[in-house]
């Protein structure tokens, strides 16, 4: 397992991070979830990503229990705050000082730790002054409850403004967590150049496009039983933008490229995002331990330039690259 520095900091994280969105506490039983975490540890992963909203706080509990007994200093644990949690009252979401201060304590309790290595704003809060948000994050850091801060799905302008305030407050905003894959490249033209300038790294989610880039969804065929596309708890909604014959047909053209590199389709997808030098890590999830074991093999893979060109040619115009999609996919107001 390879390590990379996270932003302009001295913190190293594994270039493949284990994340438990949409699985732990909802889709996968606790025993299976723990087995996946153990597989990640066995594969050399020491960096783990979660959020308070995942399974309405249960995912943090499952991760905390699964990591119990591990040497804390040998792990890098990330969590996030913004989306509604608990009874979802008017102050149970957003990035107000009240919600941040209450949420970090809840996350630490569920994760069974005194601090997280990275505390991330899960979205931009249009209803809270950014100064209030960043001051609250600064106080969390100074209290020793988080070591660094990051953001998720913020635009380039939002990242720049947050980074400036963090610097003025004497804390480090070192990461951005956007969606990024062969099919979804909206960060490349604005977010990545801004982050390179500021010393901020990407920790990307959905590098396999919620499973689409495994090639298991074939045009004209029934959906695989138990797959993300059949999940009525949220998975099907997340994947539907890719579930059309044009996209799925193009993805099938990646198979000979993967075979030529002696990689599975999933390994190719994870290795592809890691070619971006602004990336610190790609987040992988799993419902079975063997998925972790296979996907970590993408660590350290160098894809030749001719194969990178072949991937672009195979996917053609189904790739989404409009930078405006980051803002469009962000909440315009708090959900509660």
TrEMBL record:
This is Aldo/keto reductase family protein. Residues 15-314 form the NADP-dependent oxidoreductase domain. Belongs to the shaker potassium channel beta subunit family. SUPFAM superfamilies: NAD(P)-linked oxidoreductase (SSF51430). It holds the Pfam family Aldo_ket_red. Keywords: NADP, Oxidoreductase. The lineage of its organism: Bacteria, Bacillati, Actinomycetota, Actinomycetes, Propionibacteriales. InterPro entries: AKR, K_chnl_volt-dep_bsu_KCNAB-rel, NAD(P)_OxRdtase_dom_sf, NADP_OxRdtase_dom. It comes from Propioniciclava soli.
């Amino acid at each position: 397992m390879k390590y990379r520095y996270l932003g302009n900091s001295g913190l190293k994280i594994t270039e493949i991070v284990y994340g438990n969105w949409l699985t732990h506490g909802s889709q996968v039983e606790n025993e299976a979830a723990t087995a996946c975490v153990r597989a990640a540890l066995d594969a050399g992963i020491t960096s783990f990503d979660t959020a308070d909203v995942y399974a309405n706080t249960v995912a943090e509990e499952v991760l905390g229990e699964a990591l119990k007994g591990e040497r804390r200093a040998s792990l890098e644990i990330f969590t996030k705050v913004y989306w509604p949690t608990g009874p979802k009252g008017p102050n149970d979401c957003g990035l107000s000082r009240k919600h941040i201060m209450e949420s970090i304590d809840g996350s630490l309790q569920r994760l069974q730790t005194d601090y997280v290595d990275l505390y991330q704003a899960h979205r931009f809060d249009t209803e809270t002054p950014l100064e209030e948000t960043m001051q609250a994050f600064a106080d969390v850091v100074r209290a020793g409850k988080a070591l660094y801060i990051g953001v998720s799905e913020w635009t380039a302008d939002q990242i720049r403004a947050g980074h400036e305030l963090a610097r003025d407050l004497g804390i480090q905003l070192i990461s951005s967590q956007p969606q990024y894959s062969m099919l979804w490249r909206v960060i490349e033209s604005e977010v990545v150049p801004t982050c390179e300038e500021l010393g901020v790294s990407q920790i990307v989610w959905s590098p396999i496009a919620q499973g689409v880039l495994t090639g298991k969804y074939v045009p004209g065929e029934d959906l695989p039983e138990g797959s993300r596309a059949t999940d009525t708890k949220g998975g099907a909604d997340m994947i539907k933008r890719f579930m059309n014959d044009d996209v799925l047909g193009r993805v099938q053209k990646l198979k000979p490229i993967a075979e030529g590199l002696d990689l599975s389709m999933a390994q190719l997808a994870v290795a592809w995002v890691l070619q971006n030098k602004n990336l610190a890590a790609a987040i992988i999830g799993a419902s079975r331990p063997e998925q972790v074991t296979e996907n970590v093999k993408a660590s350290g893979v160098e894809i030749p330039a001719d194969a990178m060109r072949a991937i672009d040619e195979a996917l053609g115009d189904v790739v989404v690259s409009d930078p405006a999609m980051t803002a469009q996919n962000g909440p315009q107001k708090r959900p509660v």
